[in-house]
Amino acid sequence: MSYQQFYTGFLSANTTKQHYACHSHYFWPDCTRDAMLEYWDDSAKYVDHKWGYFFETLVPELQQRISTILNTNAPGQVVFAPNTHELLYRIMSCFDTAKPIKVVSTDSEFHSFQRQASRLEEQGAIELISVETQPFDTFSSRFKAAIAQHNPDLVFFSHVFFNSGYVVNDLNDVVNSVANDDAIVVIDGYHGFMAKPTDLSDIAHRAFYLAGSYKYAQAGEGACFAHIPTGCKLRPAYTGWFAEFGDLDKPRQIAGKDAVQYSQDGMRFAGATMDFTALYRLRAVLRLFEENNLSVATINDYVMQMQQHFLNELKRQGHDVLNEANLVVKDAHCRGHFLTFELADAKVTQALSAALKEKGILTDSRGNRLRFGLGLYHTPEYINLNALSAL
Prior knowledge:
The chain has about 400 residues and is of the alpha/beta class. Helix content is about 35%, strand content about 15%. It has 2 domains: about 5-30 and about 295-390, Aspartate Aminotransferase, domain 1; about 30-290, Aspartate Aminotransferase, domain 2 (3-Layer(aba) Sandwich), CATH 3.40.640.
């Protein structure tokens, strides 16, 4: 089975390259080009009334589709933003800043959290406790122990860690270990959404979930979202006019305590005016998947098959560095949609990445770790690693 027919535009633009960075920037299906033109046409048709049109048609459809994918049974709790950092900071703005916020997280979070948390720690606004992700087989128990020990205000961790591909398969257990009902729990789902089957039904009332379309949802940048816990009544200080969309024509209340009104669903965490082109692209991709019976489970099965084929090809090459001995996550059941190899140091890793690029093999690195992503547009015939013999 091949899915390359969905990606002819990106594939034809990269005929001399092998792209193994879909964990960073997935090729877009051809349907996304038509979606961008559809956005232009609708903007021309509706002009200033397009916001009402979007929130009556586009947004509810995407909310329902995402809720179904994550099995939350709460489509109204899905809210959109151009990036996950905006959503993260909106969540963090719910805290009382009169005292430092105690945060338990890990040493393997993506920059949108790690940089922001480090800067707030510099200011004395938060106390950050970072739990090492390795060794992986004891991560969950160590992370839960840190939560119990520190009784944090905020727990933040990834479903799939960006620098290794390790999957936290016991999401429910980790979330349910947070005994303090007032603590906020946030899951960074960016490397899990549309890659690994995810069921949030048992924790939809408890956890925030952040993700977007830049990677495995295949719709490019600009379409990120959060699932807001059902029943959440938090009032983010960092707020925009979308958070009271539908009530803009009502008289503004007199200033006073709790005078600022919020939507009663997930839209209470909304921001302000954004370019909805990316949401059109995301809708087109999710419709494409539905029309072709491409569930997340089906996608995951295919990609894991491509990973195994890739590893078999590596073994055939007998490369002295790129081999299973240096594979960070060896258990496929605990691995996301990219293979990560740990090399001697960052300099060696960058040099090998650059040498691969010279041979038309595109990948990326994080420190001393080289990452190879596999996706739906890969086939056994596409994967040609003969160039490794010269490296």
